Amino acid sequence: MDVFKIAVKIFAQSDSFAPSQFVPIFQHWIQNQSVEGHRLIDVADYGHVVGGPGTVLISSEANFYTDRGENKFGLLYSRKLPLAGSFGERLRTVVSETLKAAAKLEAESELGGKLKFKTDELLIRLNDRLLAPPNDQTAAAVKADLLSIAKVLYGGKPVGIQGKISDKTLVEFRLKAEEQPALAALIGRLA
Amino acid sequence: MTTWKDKLADAVPADWGQEIDSFEAQIALRKQGKIEEKVFAETRLRRGAYGQRYDNGQRHDGIRTQKLPYSSLTKGPDTFWEAPGMQRIKLPYGGMNPQQMIALAELAEEYSDAICHITTRQDIQLHFINIEDTPDIFRRLAAVGITTREACGNSVRNITACPLAGVCNTEAFDVTPYAKALTFYLLGHRDIQDFGRKFKVAFSGCEDEACALVSLHELGGIATTKVVDGKTVRGFKLYVGGGLGAVPHQAKLFDEFVPEEDLLPLSRAIGRVFARLGEKKNRNRARLKFLVQKLGIDEFRRLVLEEQRTMPEDPAWREHFDQIPRWEEKPSLKAVQLNGARRPEGYDQWAATNLYQQRQSGYCLATVTCPLGDLTPDQMRSLADIATRYAGGNARTTVEQNIVLRWIPHDKTIELYKELCAIGLGESGAGTIVDVVACPGTDTCKLGIASSRGLAGELRHRLAAKNASLDQSIRNLRIKVSGCFNSCGQHHAADIGFYGNSRNINGYTVPHFQVMLGGQWSHNAGSYALAMGAVPSKRVPDLIDRLTSRYVADRIGDESFQKFCQRIGKQALKDMVNEFVAVPPHKEDPSFYSDWGDPREFTIGDMGVGECAGEIVSLAQFGFTLAESEAFEAQILLDAGQYQQADEKGYQAMITAAKTLVQIQWLDAPNDPNIVVEEFRKRFVEPKLFWDTYHHGQFANYLFARHEGADTRYTKDTAHKIVEEANLFIDAAHKCHAKFQSQSAGAAKGALAK
To answer: What is the distance in angstroms between the Cα of A93 and the nearest Cα belonging to chain B?
Structure first.
């Protein structure tokens, strides 16, 4: 599986955040170039689009969306530049970057500690119709790596993995765990 | 690894596929430093691949200007390769079918920031695109019948048309097939490759409505008919030389009635005159409007008609013209009137602003309001599905940055409304004061001074909140915002328009907007707004309240806003504007010193050099670049063991280079290789212009020998020989061109000395 354009969304516990709240936060991130391994370039605000990408932090390597897709607010990290390693290693990196960015957002003083992410669910999307066409072969090709990362993240406890294969949308998988470990714990398990 | 090129090999039209392959080769050559950056810039612009803000490698972060550490490779002057860019996608007359909508959604999802943006010229733009993804983007678009060719650069841009065309109650006839015919006739046409600036075309079905805003175009046609020998014939009231920008011009009437069969040849003649006489060096004076102004409309008309009489035959127009009667649009459902069905909350309000009763009984056109012209890939996909089920697949973008669905049976409008609401696109207010139009401005444009989208978003938000309480006379006003004087937001054609600028106050740069009042949207943008002075960006909403309140209070009868402005006079308008010019000191209210939607302290230091004007690249430079990319493709084919194809591509590269030289003397040189070779021999080899002091005519002989016939063994060696010879031939052609240019310059100097 050669796909490197992997996107991961972690959902927030509450939807009560205006997209415009994230504009100054992302601008500060750019001022400080504070996301390691990412050349932060710009902020795009799509808060006026219902169910849209919200406020987007653009970097050369990935986009960080305060995404409102499915009308559920969350942080979506979408990789753009290639990553080294196997698909499993790339997936692990993208999940790790997502979790680290989520933790960074949670710690933002401008949000007053109100933003908390749910750690029992992750949406994984393969953003490349050529390398990850919507079919059973794609699902089969990534299955082991999904199981593997679920095991690492949730310490071998039960995790449901639900795939969505449709010719209309990108291939995506939803990991649902039975418990919510601390965000820091998840990050630590991937380190 | 599978590639889009392989996957879509059968779906992409062969000629489009070859163009894309050449562009991909040019990308590779630019990375190797083998194409000049200026030439590559214009090449990518002519494929719609545009620069974007901060691609010069620096960005003010609110405190200081940060260098964005890109590698040194550039994709144009002061434009870094790795910096994200914008991809403009032409949609002639705004037309999209469901398959195309799905493709646009997928591209936005996979390559951009997950937004499809509708422009004021009925294009779609994708932002934050990597230049290396563009060939695949082009292939995926080509596979559904969309080309980005000439979407930017000094070329004929997207040809726009009234979104009501074909269903309008007041049109003379449907202009859609004419817009389509002219689009594809001029697309890539050799006569339009040597413009000094862009060239915009629009078609309207009626004179009195806004339709396609003909007055602000280089070339505009308004449908009209007349009776000749008892028979009604179609034609166009044709206008030329309109344009906005810093110096707006109303188009001039070229002819009251151009018969439909003359439209394509006449447009070609206009293009030829513009290419020949239009300004090339000073880009600020290079639009057609300046040529028409300089010559006067009568002389311009005379030159064009003379050109039409004398230009070489080009039977290609006939093929496109013959397609016109075949144009038809079909509904997917039978028309049934809405008959007492229960209407959900919000429907009536939406129907009042977003539904238009078509000429065809029982059918409506529904406008899907897209805030600031933006929609998500999921929304675009859902709209494709909705268009299929309700509208016969007939969707079009509008210059007001919305999408219209046509042929909706009246009884299906309630279901349609519910479905649009379900995907977040059920907003009412299309074409009203709430539906503010804005160009990208400082969000992504290199030329933007102030945040047009930020302001438009704020106005939209505030006006929507009080929409129900707004007086009816205000609701129908139009607000349009541009980020700078270049007018991409079409602020001249608005009741209330704005364009971004700045003022230095107390040592700070403060974002401002110039206020433009009383522009005419109707009558194809029949008159332009007047500048009334600049106000701080943050005072604009208050100013709008003031202007509209005064309009409601002092309006006489059903007086339009434009008439109202004329009646109360400039001084009264200026006085109102002046109430809002004060800027509080920074320590008192720092919010004035940043722009809408952007908390950074305002600066104009992020402005770059715009690419709207394109790069002035000669036809010869284009020709040689194409020849070099063909030679490069030949090398790739050779490496892949495809020897016959490598041989043919190498030969083609030599023909292209030879034709480029011939065109210096004979612009209309045909593509026929026999003629190219003969003319090349006569004009360049025999007079020893294509001549090397050591090798003499050897390089020319490579072409002559291969033209006699290929070595049909097609081995690695034979192919390798041709590829090598092609490269040597192109080098020699460059030298010949340089020699020819210096001789021409010397002759000109000599003539001047006499």
So the answer is: 19
